């Protein structure tokens, strides 16, 4: 069996999306499209030179059927006369094999470590203590600036942290620098409360639109920890911190406006024996 340079056959290969739209592929029957994929699989398993009898056995077809299929594959430029796939090495890469990548990654991690053993945890250690011990092992600072290069610190909450930091920069609110264990647990709970990423985005928008939460009314400003509290988050979603304008009261006595207008018309009609109809309007001539 053919092996790659790391000593093991590849178990998967690259299949490009253009397979679904390539005219050469789509002009073939569905049976031949399937057979072509089978040839790719056999090549991936290490069969570089596929003999005709091997192919017919693997595809479970007769020699005549393979002869017709092979002729079409050769005409369309998929294989040559020896059943070798044309341009296979140009579209499949050695870097696809994970063995060497994993080895290089582990070597880099070993070089970063000052010791090889993690300090033991005691029963009285808090989550913060454990985090500090782990960070000391790999010689990293306790606080790391948020960046796209180190997004793994936020695990699956990177979009939510990015959305918060965006409005924080816009309004001068405290930015999230480190997602602690407590914050991760609270973030998971709040996402469940609001229905996921869209609900979180709506909540951040409501914070951004609130004069109270952004410090426009007082010196206090909301923080991520405030938003992650269940009580605070519920109030934000319910609009408790939205900008509510006080209702405008009508001028004093305005409730009697129309009744006063009618009385004025009646008085004008009775004045001077109703001699001038234009004077009926209390507003004067119209």
Distance from first to last alpha carbon = 105 Å
The backbone outline, from C-alpha atoms, is: elongated
Strand segment tally: 0
Structural class per helix/strand content?
Answer: mainly alpha
The string of secondary-structure elements, in order, is HHHHHHHHHHHHH
Count of discrete structural domains: 3
Helix content: 40-55%
* Average pLDDT taken over every residue: 74
Portion of residues in beta strands equals under 5%
Low-confidence stretches: 1-8, 137-154, 275-286
Radius of gyration: 38 Å
Largest sheet: none
The helix tally amounts to 13
How is this structure best summarized?
By secondary structure, the chain is mostly helical. It has helices spanning 23-26, 30-44, 52-59, 63-76, 88-91, 98-112, 127-137, 158-171, 181-194, 197-209, 224-228, 230-237, 257-270.
